[in-house]
# Entry
Amino acid sequence: MRRLSGYLFATPYLILFSAFLVAPLLYGLAVSLFRWDLLTTRPPTFVAAGNYAEAVADPYFRKALAVTLEFVALATPTTVALALLLAALLESLRRQTLYRAAFFVPTMLTISVAGILWRWFFNTDFGLLNSGLARFGVSVPWLTDTRFAMPSIVLMTLWWTVGGPTVILLAGLQNIPRQFLEAASIDGAGGFTRFRTITLPLLRPVLLFVVAMNVIGAFQVFGQTFIVTRGGPELATRVLVQYIYETAFNNYRMGYSAAMSWLLFAVIALVTAVLLGLLRER
Amino acid sequence: MARRLPLALLIALLMCGCGRKPDSRTELRFWNGFTGPDGVTMLRLVQRFNRENPDVRVLMQRMDWATYYNKLYVAGIGHRAPEVFVLQTHAVPRFARARFIRTVDDLIGPRGGLLPSQFDPNIWQTDTIDNRQYGIPLDIWVMGMYYNRRLFRSADLIDASGRPVPPANRGRFVDAARRMTDRKAGTWGFAFTNFESNVYSVMLQFGGSLFSPDGTRCTLNSPENVAALQLCVDLIWKERVAAPPENFDSWIGFRQGRVGMVWEGIYMLADLESSSDLEYAGAPTPTLGSRPAVWSGSHNLCLRADLSPRQVQAAWRFIRFLSDNSLDWAAGGQIPARRDLRALPRFKSMTVQAEFARQVPYAVPMPRVPFAFELQSEFDLAVERALRRTVTPQQALDAATRNVDRVMKQ
# Structure
């Protein structure tokens, strides 16, 4: 009886979960095996792995994947490191509320607001950043140069998203028992040694969570690039999700975009599994 | 009791709803992408139609063009598409092929009140597929030249009476651009604002086209197109009279008075009218090649495929109303597709629109292909890479041609 009631409690959620997540996922998997162009009267035709083979050979898919990996490689380490630094600084403050809020507020903006804001900040001619740099005679082509565009997006992402992990890491830091740190101080350990030998190992589970969520989120990047650069210049910031979106909703090739979505899922699953394996051991 | 009050109110509200008299008016949903000032103009027209036609009720819904087609498409699949909707020229073949549009061949003619002869043949034909008419062009968004009168005057580009003279051919154009360019001050004679419309027009003027006459092969890398793109590259890097595409926001630059000439669609007029101190004027796009030609397109009024006779009758009356009153639409910064209306003095008094409209006889839309979006992204990418000198025009267009051919084979 008790077991049954557990299932009963979970049922409403399970229904919604299946209807709105599992079912569409499986539907997408099925669609990915078909050639299905929406804007024709031609019915979908079964092509088995044809869409997947096309993606592997598609230079635009490869380019978008490379751009996405570049974003993950740039954004995740910087976000986590900065969040850790901010959390450690915040923890040492007596009055945290104001600063905590200051770092967290950008996270609450929608991407459309943050994106438009930063598009103006980044403007080469009269943007906030370059007008500040003009004093030193420097003008950075933030969004217009293929080499600068992605780092600029990462910079903006950092501002926009660092608040979330900071708050989580701060909570993790505050859960570390004081006695350990005090004991280490008595033994003569300096601040950095205490952080490295006590704080970091005890923070590992929280850190693991933050890294995993960040990697997954970074792979799914879309809003920033879509609003700030539209994928340009010369496709330097067109990430995979944008290419999938354009394939599905500009070119109406549903099967192909579903296949690319599943490939993205496979990449995320693989990278996350490897990361978790690396971080969990020892 | 207090807890039941909201429930009671809700029930009362619902019952009020039930008690309403059934509406005998024919309801027409009208969707479009006019989210800017153009939407306000259109809304006024719709309100006027509703007042003048008590038996019809038009409900207009506006969506951003970027998401508009997705919504329209999904609504179409679910058989919930609006009765009347606007399609831009490039979208017509796709929606026609999906059989979403009712042809209007049975409605046009003297009895229906609209005649093909009231339109320019090249504009009318953009809605003709396999000899069937899929919509009524409302306007023509032809590309023209906006120029800064103050910069023209300070560069002494004036006639005897002191009025600025816009250039009409390549020699005059490059000369005018050179005289207005002051790189130290950050002033440019010309700037590319839209790769597709700007460069495609030059290609057309060079005699180029994007596809072979039978439509089976992409000819984007033809010698004419390569030469046209090379000229565009040279304007930036050799003549140094056009702003480099990187590090410069061209349209904003024009609005700030730092660019002498830009080529843009008539739809940018509303944006210019809102700027208070810019002295601008409009002129036909200069001909840089051997023949006049200019990029254009139309907003087309289309009907859903499965309308009832009553809906068809009401919807056609609405389409006719919009067409007959397209001078009101033009006042908001558009050019009416109706040739007979453009001949009226009222249109002639709209100076920029009238100047741009002089190009209608040689206006050319982007080729009507089912893969318009793929074509556009390949075109834009190739032009961007060439104008930034990442690759040569030949290399850029070769790559784009290969990709477009690949899409065509699918």
